[in-house]
Write a structure and sequence with these properties.
This protein is α/β, with parallel strands linked by helices and 352 residues long. It contains eleven helices and ten strands. The strands form two sheets. The protein has a six-stranded parallel sheet, covered by helices on one side. Strands 2-3-1-4 form a four-stranded antiparallel sheet, sandwiched between helices.
């Protein structure tokens, strides 16, 4: 049975659409079970990040029927009632495998060659594997994707330079303030993206960093590593008067900061500029705060312009990477065809 992929990403859908299709990790196993129980797929993996939501599946359905079924499934999962046009893309073999490999290598990312997506892809695959929803075909495909990403990283220059969403956010901060020396930053949310962003800020001369997270223990741990200070999550608003830059990346399902809450917090700042960078999906900060005086709000899509600069720098490496990916995908399909398809009635689970 073939591997197909259907999804939407920063290339096809703005953040206000992507955030409505995002899956929290805790929900993924039940959604995968529902999909497999429906008979639409025998194996499946869901990848949900700030820039993409993708469903990889092994299916016995004819591709056109599979794409229609899985698109409706994703729409119904989120009770999405707005018209859907070109937001979704769908790929069958060999293009589905080539796409998976490109995602793993950072070739389909907002920041070309970024490395965070590989960790996110491994986490998504492991969640499906540990809950029994990834089988022989997806196991082999994802393991191959990880190997291809390693090959691309070592054999090309695609990851040369600044290659993470966090580092792009820091470059945006430098454009706003010219220099980060003496500035104070606060990071809300202590996940991987927040940690990388905080480290990038330190490397560019930030004076001090405050870390706030729902798990205060994790905030203390990260603040200690960064030589900063941790504050309890319910107390982060009290730090607004001192902060110049606030980078928010929580997993909250709703805004943690809106215009009504922010407005009174600005008075003690005495017209000092405040840069808010919202790299969460769903978004952490209400867009209307951008209308407040001396407040500059940027979301994940606003980082695209800086990412495009990196794209131009790495353009000469893209053709080389894509040639490697086509070769690796063709080799994998050749091996799968010669070995025969996995029986849909008795899927084999576990590492292959």
């Amino acid at each position: 049975m073939p591997i197909v992929v259907i999804g939407l990403s920063h290339r096809t859908a703005p953040v206000n659409v992507r955030e409505r299709f995002a899956f929290p990790d805790a929900r993924v196993p039940a959604v995968l079970k529902q999909l497999r129980d429906s008979g639409a797929a025998s194996e499946a993996v869901i990848l949900s990040t700030c820039n993409r939501v993708e469903l990889y599946a092994v299916t016995a359905l004819e591709p056109r029927a599979a794409f229609a079924t899985m698109r409706d499934f994703l729409i119904n999962c989120h009770d999405y009632r707005d018209p859907v046009q070109d937001e979704f893309y769908s790929l069958a073999e060999p293009h589905s495998l080539e796409h998976l490999f490109k995602v793993a290598c950072g070739l389909d990312s907002m920041v070309l060659g970024e490395t965070e997506i590989l960790g996110q892809l491994k986490k998504a695959y492991d969640l499906a594997l540990q809950t029994g929803h990834s089988g022989a075909r997806l196991n082999k495909a994802f393991q191959k994707a990880f190997n291809v990403a390693k090959h691309i990283r070592t054999e090309t220059n695609i990851q040369r330079g600044s290659v993470s969403v966090g580092s792009v956010a820091v470059e945006l901060a430098e454009k706003i303030f010219t220099s980060l020396l003496g500035r104070q930053a606060m990071v809300i949310g202590a996940g991987d993206t927040s940690e990388k962003t905080a480290r990038a800020l330190l490397n560019r001369g930030i004076h001090s960093i405050i870390v706030s997270n729902r798990s205060h223990e994790r905030a203390v741990e990260l603040a200690t590593e960064l030589g900063g200070r941790a504050v309890h999550f319910e107390e982060w608003a009290a730090e607004f008067s001192a902060a110049d830059i606030i980078i928010s990346s929580t997993s909250a399902p709703h805004y943690i900061l809106d215009r009504a809450r922010l407005a009174p917090l600005l008075k003690p700042r005495k017209n000092r500029p405040l840069l808010l960078i919202d790299i969460a999906v769903p978004r952490d900060i209400e867009p209307e705060v951008n209308f407040l005086e001396n407040v500059y709000l940027y979301n994940i899509d606003d980082l695209q312009a800086i990412a495009d600069d990196y794209l131009r720098q790495r353009r000469e490496e893209i053709a080389r990477c894509e040639a490697i990916i086509r070769d690796k995908a063709g080799a994998l399909l050749g091996g799968a065809n010669s070995a025969g398809a996995v029986s849909p009635s008795r899927p084999a689970f576990g590492h292959q």
